[in-house]
Amino acid sequence: SRTDGVLVGDESTLELALSTPGLNMVTLAQDVKLTKSITANDDSQVVIDLAGHTLTSTATRVITAQEGGSVMVCNGDIDASGKDGVYAVAGNVTLKDVNLKNANEGILVYDNKSSLNGDSVISFSGCTIEAKEDGLWIYGNGALSEENTTIVIDDCKITGKNYSGMICNGS
Questions:
Q1: How many CA atoms lie within 13 A of 84 on its CB side?
Q2: Residue pair 136/103 in contact by the 8 Å Cβ criterion
Q3: Mean pLDDT by groups of 10 residues along the chain of 171 residues
Q4: Using CA atoms, how far apart are residues 100 and 94, in angstroms rounded to an integer?
Q5: What per-residue string of b and e applies to 93-129 under the rule 16 or more CB within 10 Å gives b?
Q6: Cα 171 from Cα 169, distance rounded (Å)
Q7: What global pTM score does this model have?
Q8: What pLDDT is attached to residue 1?
Q9: Cα dihedral value 4, 92, 53, 36, nearest 10
Q10: Judging by DSSP bridges, how do beta strands 107-110 and 32-34 pair with one another?
Q11: Helix/strand/coil (H, E, C) string of the chain?
């Protein structure tokens, strides 16, 4: 069976909750500061309701979804503290009503680095993504898979201050 809505208030309880088998979602009880990336891989699923709070991270990447892992974050702010916001390699990422700020690179999709030749599915709705370099960088894996990297953007503002809002290469 699955459990919904465990409240967390710091990095250690968040890490423990996300490593609990069968847990469906965690909800922030207050602002949380991280020193490690939130990572989903090998078909694992991470769902975080920010509940109007801020998730601040000094990790190289705030969120990583790779090789079939799935991450959904909703309802609050992510402060990347000058590091990269979201990194996906053949992973699934959903951001809904999230403001990603202070990122070096906002969202990086590097399907060309997938050891499984997989493709990411990325979905943003009602978000603001602000990055120093690129807001969204997509690098598909070309003809290595039958599918394509998929990006769905609905009612979002994506800003890359030094380079571009969005840059794409591959499929």
A1: 16
A2: no
A3: 75 91 88 95 89 96 93 97 94 97 95 81 96 92 74 96 86 55
A4: 13
A5: bbbebbbbbbbbbbbbbbbbebeeebbbbbbbeebbb
A6: 7
A7: 0.92
A8: 39
A9: 100
A10: unpaired
A11: CCECCEEECCHHHHHHHHCCCCECCEEECCCEEECCCEEEECCCEEEEECCCCEEEECCCEEEEEECCCEEEEEEEEEECCCCEEEEEECCEEEEEEEEEEEECCCEEEEHHHCCCCCCCEEEEECCEEEECCCCEEEECCHHHCCCCCEEEEECCEEEECCCCCEEEECC
Check if the beta carbon of residue 119 is closer than 8 Å to that of residue 147. yes
CB neighbour class for 52 (10 Å; exposed up to 12, middle 13-18, buried from 19): exposed
Rounded Cα gap, residues 51 and 151, in angstroms: 25
Residue that has been written with the tokens 């993504």 in this structure: 129
Rg (C-alpha) for the chain, rounded Å, is 15
For residue 128, which amino acid is it? T
Of 168, 115, 121, nearest to 144 by C-alpha is 115
Residues listed for the chain: 171
